[in-house]
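JOB MANIFEST
job_type = single_chain_structure
chain_count = 1
residues = 197
[input]
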Amino acid sequence: MVAGTSERDHWDRHFAAGNGFRRVDAHEARSLAGAVPPRAGARALDVGCGLGTYAAVLAGLGYRTLAVDWSEAAVAATRDRYADLEPRLSTRRLDFADAAEVTVRLPRAGFDLVTMRLALAFLPDKTAVADRVRGLPAPGGHWLVTTCLTSRLPTERHRIGLSPDDVAAMTDGWPLGHWYDLEPTGMRCFVLRRPTD
């Protein structure tokens, strides 16, 4: 980040320049579909959508998807790149670190799937995020977190991954779930499920 600029300005410039992160490949899309198969009318929320590639995959699988990001440039890029997927894919600027904004703007128990792909590591309070997400899936709904793990990263890149303590904070209070690796030394996907009540 450039000194003297806010973090949001940094990400707005990043996304406005067309920069994203790791692309979603066919293996990852198949793994997603196998882990949380959509059903007719299922709704998904993609938090930290970036340039929208994961949200587009969700929409392509049949989810009615809301893609949110705190960066206006990311939201605009997603909306422009995937205009052909409307109304299955819609976008909204939302700061998920702001509890009040999440409470006001997102419906409780309103989603069958909440995803965070390469986003959770950048949110400061993992415990608060887990608490916030817990109220969003409908009974039987899922929270799917795709992340790098610090144990698989060089020390200088730990900021982009989750530590064992972060993983414990994320999974606490989610009694059901499993995980799978996208490749042996790469990203891990945590699939947490809300009980059906």
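[summary]
The chain has a mean pLDDT of 91.
Strands lie at 43-47, 64-69, 89-93, 111-117, 137-149, 161-162, 176-181, 188-193.
exit_status = 0
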